[in-house]
Amino acid sequence: MLLKIIRYIKGYIRIRITGYSTERFLNACSHKGIVLWGLTPVNRAYEMNIQVKGFRQLKPIIRKTGTKVVIVGRFGLPFFLHKYRKRKLFFAGALLSLALVFLLSRYIWNIDIQGNLSYTDETLLRFLESTQVTNGMPVSEVDCARIVKDIRKEYNDIIWVSASIKGTRLIIQVKENEDSLPAMDEVNPEPAGEQLQEDKAMDIVADQDCIITKIVPRNGIPMVKEGQQVKAGEILVSGQVPVLDDSGTVIGYQYHKADADIQGRTSIEYQNEISLTYEEKEYADIEKKEYTLKIGSYYLRLGSIRNSYEAWEMYGFAKQLCIGDNFYLPICYEKRIAKPYRPLEKKYTKNELQRILSKSFQRYCKDLDKKGVEIIENNVKIYTGSEKAEAKGRLTVLTPIGTLTQSQLLEIPVIEEQDETGE
């Protein structure tokens, strides 16, 4: 690649050699140190590339070998400049463009946010704007460390941030906390089995009414048994482990964060309904278009999507001018289209209603399965009325039970000491 650039800057000529001694011509050029490349046979002749300096040394070789040389083409920067030597405005414009590109390269023209799920790009861009980080700011004023610190401070659930500059592009990568731990778990992240302070004792309580089908404690004291009916809010595993003396009397408590695998059987209600009719759009063959060219804060608009349609939808796209992958420019092209339509009311068939409601119920069951919920009995049925169709019923399921809450501390019994006479 570098060699091609050098040859283009110096300029080269494409020549065609004819005659009976073309081999002698090639050998003589090699002996003289004249560089030839791109050798190609063409109609009992040869075509090749040669440097301008080498072409000027061919006259004695041509006379000696009896060959004929014809110039096929001239290539490279010297020939390009010579061809357009009278077009001064063209070269002035080219130099001005280079100077403008160099000037624009010293500013940020695109802020790209990656990895965000809970927060939209617009939300994060508005926050960055409040901290004076915007498009059009000088690259020298961008403090990536401060941007990282500000985002981490403002959004607690963003656990990792990276900011970097590539070309005229500011790239901000974030990673959000995707853990679904209970809120009390986040406040008290001590590992299970470790003794806690009194005010940090944690119990596992039932988060719904159910019948306990499995309980495997790892830390804490189980307060229920398998087969027992429990109510929401009832303590399942206590984080307060009693300390007994030799006589079996409670003399204190050790405080832990309760930990256990608990499963319960319960029933949940399912209901989903849809209307018997739906709207279908019949599009017209006409549409209104609007084109916008934005350069910084200035714009040029052609056409308009303003209309008197009763019902219409608008769609379009916007594209920012970019050289390569990271050299964005403050030039943006937008196109918007307004297309009218006539809304038509149509009615689902019975099979379509069943298919839609069945697919929705299957997605619901898959979501339950991802949460570790096992369906053991299904009593959901589809009913069709005069205005709507619905799928409703109850599901009997085996589901993980329990949530962590701060323990209500138990009082330690007071033991009264007796004297030796027993009084």
TrEMBL record:
TM regions (residue ranges): 89-109
Report the InterPro entries cross-referenced here.
Answer: YqfD (IPR010690)
Would you say which domain of life the source belongs to? Bacteria
Key words, A-Z: Membrane, Transmembrane, Transmembrane helix
Family matches, as Pfam families: YqfD
Under what name is this protein listed?
Stage IV sporulation protein
Q: Which organism is this entry from?
A: Sporofaciens musculi
